[in-house]
Amino acid sequence: MLTRTSKSSHKPSSLLLPLEETVAQERTANNVKEPTHKTNYKPLSSIWDGEDAELLEQLLDFYPRAQPRAILDATVNGGRFWRGSKRSVIGMDIEAGHRPNVVADNTLMPFGNESFDVVVYDPPHIPNQGKDKSKDFNVRFGLVLRSSKEHGYTFSHTYPPFLREAFRVLKPEGILLCKIADYIHDHQYQWAHVDFIQAASAAGFRPCDCIVKIRKGPIIDPKWKVAHHSRRQHCYWLVFRKSEKCE
Predict the structure, then answer these.
(1) Which of 220, 88, 240 is nearest to 178 (CA)?
(2) Which of 39, 107, 166, 242 is 20 to 30 A distant from 178 in Cα terms?
(3) Which pLDDT score is estimated for 131?
């Protein structure tokens, strides 16, 4: 509320200053500093061919309305997203072998409501490895869980419970960053990023942006002599906000 220091400072209604000037004078009189805004704006390309850690750092500078202080990596795994980062991050994973800060299921998070400014999510990129155990899909593409025939060999059924929890633990205007990849399975194109966007919207998130990340190479098995789909050589970083608007 704006206050005057004395009755003599009041002016007749016909001589009132414009509202903006009046507010400015009051803020100056009360030694109120104007909020600072970013002056080093740099546009962010929708195509990225660098490392995830470098991109994630740019995303964290670009999208949050204020510098995020509480960041949760809900699928931290070995923590490769944060190599070289000076940010304070709580890493959570269901696998204790990764030695996360918190061992927990990201569909049942042990955190209070509105605890975080940013949640980062990197779900498995392919559902099943198959019978050939010599392939390194477990390490390269995050294969930890398996998907059953009843779920169509996809992980789409895991998105809604995670997203409900992410929405709960994020503060208002908080940001959800998700790395996700489409893939071919059982001779069908699996639209994982579309499934995730639809599930996020149903959970209350506002889809705001999409960065296409170029991979150094697609998922290839030497046994695949003929493929009737283009090779998947990209994935997506999706940006959501817990808000009714993006900007």
Answers:
(1) 240
(2) 39
(3) 53
Name the CA dihedral angle for 158, 224, 80, 200, rounded to a multiple of 10 degrees: -30
Q: Encoding tokens for residue 44?
A: 């962010």
Give the pLDDT of residue 199.
97
Q: Give the tens place of pLDDT for each residue, 97-140.
A: 999 999 999 999 999 999 999 999 998 766 554 554 544 444 44
HSE of 137, CA atoms in CB hemisphere, 13 A: 21
What is Dmax (Cα atoms) for the chain?
89
**What domains are there in the chain, each with its CATH number?**
46-241 (3.40.50.150)
Cβ contacts of 70 within 8 Å, gap of 6 or more: 90, 115, 116, 117, 118, 171
Q: How many residues are listed for the chain in this entry?
A: 247
pLDDT in tens, 43-86: 899 999 999 999 999 999 999 999 999 999 999 999 999 999 99
Predicted TM-score of the model (pTM): 0.73
Q: Mean pLDDT over residues 144-150, rounded? A: 48
Cα distance between residue 96 and residue 239, in whole Å: 28
CA 82 and chain centroid, separation = 14
Q: Where are the alpha helices (DSSP H) in 2-134?
A: 19-29, 52-62
- Burial label for 63, CB within 10 Å (0-12, 13-18, 19+), is buried
The CB density around residue 238, as the number of other CB atoms within 10 Å, is: 20
